[in-house]
Write a structure and sequence with these properties.
Elements: H1 36-50, H2 60-73, E1 76-79, E2 83-89, E3 92-97, E4 100-103, E5 110-116, E6 121-125, E7 127-131, E8 138-142, H3 144-147, E9 148-150, E10 156-167, H4 172-177, H5 182-199, H6 203-207, H7 211-229, E11 233-244, H8 250-319, H9 321-337, H10 372-381
Antiparallel strand pairs: 1-4, 2-3, 2-5, 6-10, 7-8, 9-10, 10-11
Length: 382
C-alpha cells in the first residue's frame, strides 16, 4: 500500500502514521526518505510502460504545439453576404466585420455573434399564424388583447397590422447588446405606437379616409422610439391588415362605411359632371363673345366702308354731277332689273319700233319667252 511504512514504525493503511505518504517524516526529511528525482524517474518509467510502443515524453511538445495550432486556427470564421459579425474578447465587444473570411480569438478567449442585417423580418400584432398539425396548413388566430384599441371618440376598434423591419447595418452592435429581447421589444413598441395614433383619431376616419395616414404616422413614431432605445432597428413599413369595429356592431359600421363610400362616389360623379359641363359652358360663352366681337367689327367695318364709298362718290359727283347721276341711274337699273325677265327698248319718242319682233329668241336658253305686244307697249311707254 502507498501509505505503508518502510521504516518499521508500524501502522497499516487505515492506522495513523506520523510519516508522510512517501515514507518520510512530517518534517519532510529523514535519513531514510527517498529522493524527489528518484520519484520523478519512477513516474516516467511507469508512464513509459503505460504508453504503447514506448511513447516517450519527447513527443509531448509536438503534441502541445499541434494542439495550440489547431486551437489558433479555430478562430477563422466566414461571414455570409447578408450578415455582419460582432467580435467579442473575454465577453467585451471589440469590433465588427463584413462578409468574407475573418479571424477572431478562439474560444474561450473570443467569440463571434453573427447578425443577418439585410434580411427583412415581419412582426404581426393582433393575430398570429398557427400551423395545423393534421394538415400542415397555417391558420389565422386572432389575439384581441393586442388588436382592440380605444379611439379618440371613445369607441373601440379592432386593428390588426404587420411591421416589417430589419437590423440597422450601421449599428448592429446596438441590436445585439442594448436590447435583451429584440422581437418582443419591437412588438411592444409597435402596439404602443398604434394605440397612441388610434387614440388621437376618430373611429369613422380610421375606418374610411385616415387609414393611409395612420401607417406612416405609426412608422415614424416607432422609429423615433427605437432610436431613443438605441435598439439598432430600422422600420421599413407598417401595413394595416384590417381595421374593423367590434364584432357586435360590425354590421352597423359596415352600413355606415357603405353610405360613406356612396357619398364619396356621388361626390366624385358630381365633380366629374361639373368638370365636363363648366368647360363646355365657358367654351360656348367664349364662342358667343367672339362671334359678337366679330359681328361688331364686321358691322363697323362695313359702315366705315359704305361711308367711305359714299364720300368717294360724293367727291366724284362734285367733279362731274351729270356723269355721276347717269352712272348712279344705270347702276340702280342694273340692280333692279338685272334678275327680271324683261326686254327694254330705249329709243326717244318710241319711233322705229317694229310691230313684231321675236325678242324671245334673244333670251338665254331656258327662259320663258315674253309676248311681243307687251314688249312693244312697254318700250313705247318708256
Amino acid at each position: 500500500m502507498p501509505w505503508s511504512n518502510q521504516g518499521g514504525g508500524g501502522g497499516g493503511p487505515w492506522k495513523p502514521n506520523p510519516q508522510g505518504p512517501w515514507g518520510q517524516g512530517p518534517s519532510g526529511g529523514g535519513p531514510g526518505s527517498p529522493d524527489l528525482e528518484e520519484l520523478l524517474r519512477r513516474g516516467q518509467e511507469k508512464l513509459r510502460q503505460m504508453s504503447p510502443g514506448g511513447f516517450g515524453f519527447k513527443w509531448l511538445p509536438v503534441i502541445a504545439i499541434v494542439a495550440v495550432a489547431l486551437w489558433a486556427l479555430s478562430g477563422f470564421y466566414t461571414v455570409q453576404p447578408n450578415e455582419t459579425a460582432l467580435n467579442m474578447k473575454f465577453g467585451q465587444y471589440i469590433g465588427k466585420t463584413a462578409s468574407g473570411l475573418n479571424y477572431n480569438w478562439p474560444y474561450p478567449i473570443g467569440s463571434v455573434i453573427k447578425l443577418r442585417v439585410t434580411d427583412r423580418n415581419t412582426t404581426s400584432i393582433g393575430f398570429i399564424f398557427s400551423a395545423d398539425p393534421r394538415t400542415g396548413s397555417q391558420t389565422h388566430v386572432d389575439r384581441p388583447e393586442e388588436s382592440l384599441m380605444l379611439t379618440g371618440d371613445d369607441n373601440i376598434a379592432d386593428v390588426k397590422f404587420v411591421v416589417i423591419w430589419q437590423i440597422n447595418p450601421l449599428k448592429p452592435e446596438d441590436f445585439a447588446f442594448n436590447v435583451r429581447h429584440q422581437e418582443l421589444t419591437i412588438k411592444a413598441v409597435a402596439e404602443s405606437a398604434m394605440r397612441e395614433i388610434v387614440g388621437r383619431t376618430q373611429i369613422q376616419k380610421i375606418l374610411t379616409a385616415e387609414r393611409k395616414v395612420i401607417e406612416p404616422a405609426v412608422q415614424d413614431l416607432m422609429q423615433k422610439t427605437l432610436e431613443d432605445y438605441h435598439a439598432g432597428v430600422t422600420i421599413i413599413q407598417v401595413q394595416l391588415q384590417s381595421v374593423d369595429p367590434p364584432e357586435q356592431v360590425i354590421a352597423a359600421y359596415r352600413d355606415v362605411t357603405a353610405a360613406q363610400q356612396d357619398q364619396d362616389r356621388l361626390s366624385n360623379e358630381a365633380d366629374a359632371y361639373a368638370n365636363r359641363v363648366v368647360p363646355e359652358a365657358r367654351g360656348q360663352a367664349a364662342q358667343i363673345l367672339q362671334q359678337a366681337q366679330a359681328y361688331r367689327e364686321q358691322t363697323v367695318a362695313e359702315a366705315k366702308g359704305q361711308a367711305s364709298r359714299f364720300q368717294q362718290v360724293y367727291e366724284e359727283y362734285r367733279k362731274a354731277p351729270d356723269v355721276t347721276r347717269e352712272r348712279l341711274y344705270l347702276e340702280t337699273m342694273e340692280r333692279v332689273f338685272g334678275a327680271m325677265n324683261k326686254v327694254i327698248v330705249d329709243q326717244p319718242g318710241g319711233t322705229g319700233v317694229v310691230p313684231y319682233l321675236p325678242l324671245g329668241a334673244l333670251d338665254a336658253p331656258g327662259r320663258p319667252q315674253s309676248a311681243p305686244a307687251q314688249s312693244s307697249q312697254q318700250g313705247g311707254a318708256r
